[in-house]
Amino acid sequence: MINVLTAFHDKVQDKTQLYDNYAIIVDPQYEPFLITQFDLFFLSLQDLTELLRTFRANFVFNKLKRSLATALLILALPFAALYILSTTTFITLAIPAIFLVLIKEEIFLAAFALLILWHDLATNFDARKLLVTYPTLDDFLKNSIENQGVQFQNFTIQQPLDYFHPVTFELLVNSLSASKNSTVLNTSNLLKTVLGHEHIQRVLKRLEIPDIENLLNSASLTTETAPIYDYTALQSLILYSLEQAIETKSRRVYPEHVLLALFSIFPVLKDVLQEHKVDFLTFEKTIEWYIIADQYRARTSILDLSQIYHNKGGVADGWVKGFTFFLDKISTNVLDQVTAIGGIYGIGHTKEINNLIGILQKQTDANAILVGDPGVGKSSVIYGLAQRIIEGDIPPALKNLSIKAVDINKFLSLASAGRGGIPELVEKLSAELRKQVGTILYFDDLEVLLSTGSGEGTAMSYLLPLLLQSPVPIVGTMTFAQYSTLKDKYPTVIDAFKEVRVDPLSKEDTFTILTTKIDKLEQMHRITISLPALKDILVLTATYQPNKRFPKKAVELLEQAAVQASTTKDKQLTRELVAQVIQTLADIPVAQSSPEEAEKLLTLEKRIHQKYVNQHDAVLAVVDSLQRAKTSVRNTSHPFGVYLFLGPSGVGKTELAKITAKEYFGSDFSMIRIDMSQYKQDSDIPTIMSQLSKVALRPYTLLLLDEFEKTTTTIHDIFMRLFDEGIVVTPKDETLYFNNSIIIATSNIGSNLLLKAPPEKFEETKLQILDMLPQYLKVELINRFDKVIVFGALSLEHLQQIAVLMVNDLVQKLSEQGIRSTYTDKTINYLVAHGYVPGMGARPLRRTLQDSLETALAKFILKSQQEAGANPKDVNFDELLPSV
Amino acid sequence: MIQELTLRNPGTFSVVGGFFSFMRSFFAWWYGDVPLILFAKLQRILVVINDITSFGVILKGYFRPWKNDYNIAGWLVGMVLKTCYLPIIASFFVVTISGFLLALLVQLSVLPVIIGLIVLNPFLKP
């Protein structure tokens, strides 16, 4: 949506040309101008020079005038007091006549000074004219400029500086400096002056850039990146600043717009922000937000002409429209609410609001149901409509309408409190509405009517007469699931109501909504909210709360983080705090660039191998996927990683999953483990779904599907989408998200081949197993695994290492109880000798440890407790082993 | 040449010239902009009064019955009450507008002149 164009006029060739590269024009042959649908902004070089010439003189005069008027006003106070005292009878003051004349003179001069200050305030402290909202430009104008067909006489010529806030022009003038015989514009100086302005400083503070000096001395600021121009360059800069003001919908040109213009002219300056980890878009949004917020804050009283007055009807409204005592009891006026709360409503829902306006203009069945997922902003559509009515931005037929939001729960509680049953209250409401003109009834969460009561006796069935033959338009909201129930049970309602689909908002619109919340939350919790934190809220909720919708999930997180920020020492809602809050809410360790977190990830492989022997490929695959996930370089609509582990029993497939869950996800409880061999019928699908639904409570998890090949093909098909998109839809239409999970499926396919093959033929056997895989699983399912890893059989050497890990684990457990334990190779050799069964992996070893060492140890400890009344202090495992 | 008109040659400035230029600007604002601002405020005050007293609503619905009860009694009560109510509110409007206009007249036309006369009074006396 372009509403302004920049172009220049070649005086020599008398040609106009558009340009969009933000070039600085210093050649007097070319005259830049800005054009909107009706206005042409142009500042001639003569005018600019004259303004600059007289600026300082005017500045000094105004300062002098202001000081004099203020002094006269201050002096008038004691003079007025003296004069009053001299006229009273309580105190006799002998004031000479000449002084009395002077006092009177001073008081009247002060009155005049007051007028001068008023004039000063009205003319020198604000822009002479205010910018308006400019309509979107059509291609016709663009083509006209290119083809020399613009009829300039049809445009109103505007002086750009009329729209500049005086402070902005002062900044521009102050950045000029004398050089030899000319005056130059040093853009580096200008940038530093603008960055030092209080408006920009508050922006930087909100962007978590506290060190302004550092920013000013940035390495990116050189004479090459910010050059020196002749002062005539101001002509272009003024127009570009004005363009920025129009684009940000500001009413005046502020120093912020000069800065945005400088960033557009010299894109390399964006690096200065990048050095502070702030992207330009966030910077731009922050400036935009301040401008809008300042304009809203300036609206204070009903006599403020910039504020649209909302008609409430007045004391005698009911005389004509009829009184609605019952309706008033169960409803609130949405228009009054919007006026009282203030703010902007319906952001991102223009399409839905327009759709609703179309329906409400119908002669019959002007009813609508807003259908959408929870949290997409269905109510916001109604509030947006209310705002459009207040602002008069609505077709004439809907002007002066009022919207009454019916509190269904209040209605039902009145019915149950014996104030008449539902049918009686419905009749009462209908009677009042029949006399009402210009009202829309709004039912938020219409589904409450479906869930109240049972069978034919639901509240909906009682309200049917009202819904179907309402004398006033009705608008309700519903989720998709409830809407389909309504379709089945009450098709007549569906006929009488038009469906308006409400889609989730984009990230950009949600960001705008979040910015509208800043003021209220800051006041309520006495905190400062940084804009990068808002951006993080969007990114984190999009990644870690896929089951919730924008904008509600982002608003909820913002509100929770604001509460959290109010409890901190510096009262700042920062990016770190947002990460902490979502970590708690979603039970997810959120990606942070802290050295500890990086260390944890980089050493993960090593730490897993401290507890896990061999199978390097498998460990590496798991670690790689977690590292990708943490650095946010992964595809967020796919699980962290989907792996198929193949291998004989006891080689450590499940053990690796357990250790990963413990080492990375916090504990092995973070794992959802499903033994697929138990589900050999398609009728087992609901049971599997209920197991999978645990992910809703713990989205950051490891899903282990043991013996995956042993279930049915239909069940395998369910997992296809899960492996691919990280999504599975339950029979109850509930969507489960696994995009923050690692999925590991294990299988014994090809185990016999592996057990029979000598170690040197492992690679060959592996290929054989992979070749035979399609006999057990569909090819498209196999393709959905990120990696298929074949676990090799464990050798004696591996078993020895595993035995050491197991015994060390035991040593650790005992040391926690204050028992110091020792052992030698004798223990390890014993365990391996008795726990090695070819083809059975490490499981027999675990059993040997349990039967021989752990049992003996338990007996030893009990004996010590019996004899000494306490645990033994020392134990030697070698001595506990049965003699061979 | 345009380039010669630089800040090194900032033109001449006299206090007297500046004063007269200021007075011209002041009176242009006082008699040009201020009445417009005040009239806009008056318009808003009238809108608020109209809303609070339901003047416009009553006027538009003058021929509609009391509380929208379409029967003889409704028509009768409605007409009588509204006929009594409207002149009271109308007089309120008239008083507000006239008071405002009077104040505006005094403030705009007379005030600066009176101030000027009082300030200059000692010097005008023989």
UniProtKB/TrEMBL annotation, chain A:
InterPro entries: AAA+_ATPase, ATPase_AAA_core, Clp_ATPase_C, ClpA/B, ClpA/ClpB_AAA_lid, ClpA_ClpB, P-loop_NTPase. Residues 794-879 form the Clp ATPase C-terminal domain. One of its GO terms (cellular component) is cytoplasm. The keyword Cell membrane does not apply. Residues 364-500, 639-795 form the AAA+ ATPase domain. GO terms for biological process: cellular response to heat. GO terms for molecular function: ATP binding; ATP hydrolysis activity. This is Clp R domain-containing protein. It comes from Candidatus Dojkabacteria bacterium CG_4_10_14_0_2_um_filter_Dojkabacteria_WS6_41_15.
TrEMBL record, chain B:
The chain crosses the membrane at residues 12-32, 75-94, 100-124. Keywords: Membrane, Transmembrane, Transmembrane helix. This is Uncharacterized protein.
